[in-house]
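Email to the structure team, subject: rRNA methyltransferase model.

Hi all, the expression group asked for a predicted structure before they design truncation constructs. Nothing fancy, just the tokens so they can compare against earlier work. One-line instruction: predict rRNA methyltransferase, return tokens.
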Amino acid sequence: MSSWHRLADTAVLLDGFHALKHAVRFGAEVRVAVTTDRAAALALADELAPDVRGALDALLAEVPESAYRALVPRPHPTAVAALAVRPAREANLRALARTPRTAPVVVLDQPRNLGNAGAVIRLAAGFGATGVVTTGPLDPWHPTVVRGGAGLHFATAVERLAVDELPAGPVFALDPEGVDIRELKLPDDAVLAFGSERSGLSAGLRGRSDRLVSLPMRAQVSSYNLATSVAMALFHWSAGS
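Reply from the structure team: attached below.
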């Protein structure tokens, strides 16, 4: 698998059948794809993704299980893996800056948990959000984030930016002290900002906010999971649009 080793340091790892399926469906440039059981992978495509079955048939190469395990740090139960080209930063920035914007941008401010970030990207893609931006050191294209996002990074714009680089639009930052979100209509060009799982909004993001908003929560419940909070906010936006 010389091509795999040549590309591995710069390409996006698509870990599992569903990640590859979504990447192909949303136009990713997949350079190499492997499986330990080609017939089983194509049977999955027949069942779950007939729209990309032909593309997967052309891409997938069967390799011994020992070779597959040597290529992938955490082998996926579907025994499928691939490498794709990461979208250019310039393309993501253009998508985030497009006007008029018809769906919000989700901002994860200083996130720490890779799995949570992946789950948020999967949610954002499902709701048709314009994109997901992270601030801070976490790379939103880390293999664990891509695995958590099931390859749906390719269905929306995903980029890491500084707070002063956020796309234009009113910033609604989620905070327990904010106005109840049910009292507001979130505009399509909203920038929805969520603080880190442990410490909440950073001072920089709080200062950039136009409005602090809160989610309904029973007294004495300390917090929601980050992905749950994003889902609630996006559902509120979609229901009011």
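The chain has a mean pLDDT of 95. The first helix runs from residue 2 to 7. Ping us if the truncation boundaries need rechecking.
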